[in-house]
Write a structure and sequence with these properties.
- The chain is mainly α.
- 77% of the residues lie in helices and 0% in strands.
- It contains 12 helices and no strands.
- The chain has helices spanning 8-16, 25-42, 48-64, 68-84, 92-107, 111-127, 134-149, 153-169, 176-192, 196-214, 219-234, 238-254.
- Helix 1 runs antiparallel to helix 2 and helix 1 packs parallel to helix 3 (48-64).
- The longest helix has 19 residues, at 196-214.
- The chain starts with 7 loop residues before the first helix and ends with a helix.
């Protein structure tokens, strides 16, 4: 008998979860359906947990096809399969599934259901002293986005600020591009709160960070400079704004 780790079907399930579903979700869905047929034919050779992970991958494919109802249904099924297999809430895989499900609930307008899930997951990370982890940072980013969409800017600022600070501490585990994105979003939320001075300070910091870490020929850096220029314009600092916006344009032209 093959060991689970070296079983070709199990290895395929592991590999397909790493696929870039955003690139061609229809093709990814077709691959999932073909793999599922072979998994079903294999019977007990493939564990219930691996079957649940495969079902969760369907949720990702449906998400990028913008079929959010099916995405939620696939996510619900995957979580139910994990629980039936005896997987508890300490499992990082199960928590990822729950976070992704909450994100999908937002897409179908079920925000009232999503927010308690995010809060429950946050409490579990804190209870297990897992605050300084990439998964926690990702969760807080989602919390910030959902609160922002609901017009809850104070809650969004707290969550995105926390995500940004921890992401900067975890540099290396969290990619610089992601750090810059979180940081820029935090500055944007500060602006929505009317804290223009702080928003400019953070925008200046993230522009400097992006240029140093990613270089001037990077889309994220150009966006950071453009955002900074816009904020300076909002503050009536027109000469500074013009110089920064010109720099952002030069960056974009250099990438053509």
């Amino acid at each position: 008998a093959k060991s689970a780790k070296t079983d070709p079907l199990v290895m395929e399930i592991d590999a397909i979860q790493l696929e870039d579903y955003a690139k061609d979700p229809a093709a990814s869905l077709a691959k999932l359906e073909a793999l599922s047929k072979r998994v079903e034919a294999a019977g007990k050779r493939v564990s219930a947990v691996k079957r649940a992970e495969l079902r969760s991958a369907y949720a990702s494919a449906y998400f990028y096809l913008q079929d959010y109802a099916r995405s939620v249904a696939a996510s619900d099924a995957a979580i139910a399969m994990m629980r039936a297999a005896g997987v508890d809430d300490a499992s990082p895989t199960l928590r990822d599934m729950q976070k992704n499900r909450a994100t999908m609930l937002v897409k179908v307008g079920r925000m009232d259901e999503a927010l308690p899930v995010f809060d429950m997951l946050r409490q579990r990370y804190l209870a297990r002293n897992e605050k300084r982890t990439q998964r926690y940072v990702s969760l807080m980013n989602e919390v910030a986005v959902v609160n922002f969409m609901n017009g809850r800017y104070v809650e969004a600022e707290a969550a995105m600020g926390e995500a940004t600070v921890i992401a900067r501490e975890l540099e290396g585990e969290v990619m610089p591009q992601q750090v810059a994105l979180f940081w820029q979003n935090w500055a944007s939320i500060l602006g929505e709160l009317g804290q223009l001075g702080r928003a400019i300070e953070e925008s200046q910091a993230v522009a400097k960070y992006a240029e140093y870490k990613l270089g001037p020929k990077h889309t994220t850096t150009a966006i950071a400079f453009h955002t900074l220029g816009t904020r300076l314009q909002d503050a009536g600092r027109y000469a500074e704004s013009e110089a920064v916006l010109r720099r952002a344009l030069e960056m974009r032209l250099a990438m053509l």
